[in-house]
């Protein structure tokens, strides 16, 4: 993508929608030789998609610290809804951005049990209980870049509660069990409120949605990436 720098891979699911004035029918043959009849009906709505989005996990914590010109070009590719002089899109025009609320595995280092440093994340919550909203500088840069380019919806999501609130003091569950301490639910909620307030003050962007758990159906016990199981129904 750029000469002299690592290629940034962003996992995106792209839905291509074509609006048709009238139904179009087509007959094709699949790989088994069976005939498949397709009909596209453009004037019937089956689903409304609120947003086309992606998340900053995990590369943006580092990419956001790159050279200003390079990372600004990447931000344009992600968020711009403008057209260049020949009418080509300058970017894919994401309309929602998910902000990874780190749990402190970066601060734990190798003791975190997470082998890949790119899968660790800083936490705004310090070990002494204070908060430092100068952390996650690369992520906050992309948050502001998205906001400047017209993104309206920002979702703060957690792969884990802060390690200070987990039963094993790690940012991933072990033995497939709930990892948030049973007496720390209120503390976790208060922490998320503090993060919303701190990010708004430090980055000027409101996290207008919060996802307190991420992919809770999966067993992340190997520590390949940080995640925690939380008992939802409390």
TrEMBL record:
According to the UniProt entry, its GO molecular function terms are: hydrolase activity, hydrolyzing O-glycosyl compounds
Mind telling me which SUPFAM superfamilies this protein's record contains?
Answer: (Trans)glycosidases
- Please name the Pfam families in this protein's record: Glyco_hydr_30_2 (PF14587)
Q: Where is the signal peptide?
A: 1-21
InterPro entries xrefs: 6GAL-like, 6GAL/EXGAL, GH
Swiss-Prot/TrEMBL keywords = Signal
The Endo-beta-1,6-galactanase-like domain covers which part of the protein? 44-225
Q: What is this protein called?
A: Endo-beta-1,6-galactanase-like domain-containing protein
Naturally occurring in which organism (per UniProt) = Arachidicoccus ginsenosidivorans
